[in-house]
Here is the input.
Amino acid sequence: MTLTQAIEKFLDYYRAQSARSATTYRTGLNHFAHWLDNGDIDAGTLTPTQAREFALWLANDYRTKYGQKLNRNSLHLYLVALQKFYDHLILNDIISGENFMSTRKWIS
Here is the structure.
């Protein structure tokens, strides 16, 4: 399953619960796919290191189209989306959870 397909499957689940959450999650996960520079990669190859590095980039280096850093609330929501996405991948046996157990607090 590609990263793009995995994101869509994840968002389908959240869209049923809250369209607004799904929209916010889509934005954060689209930033992640763009940061990886490839939505066609195998979602099963995602690593904790990629999640941590993306979180650091988003917090420190990302700029909006107006040149501003993300506000704290948006940053938090995007990282929650990424964490839930990784949880979704683990629960659906797309990635192994054992590699993530020691790195669970990467959004704190």
Observations:
- The mean pLDDT is 89.
- The helical segments are 3-17, 19-36, 48-60, 72-91.
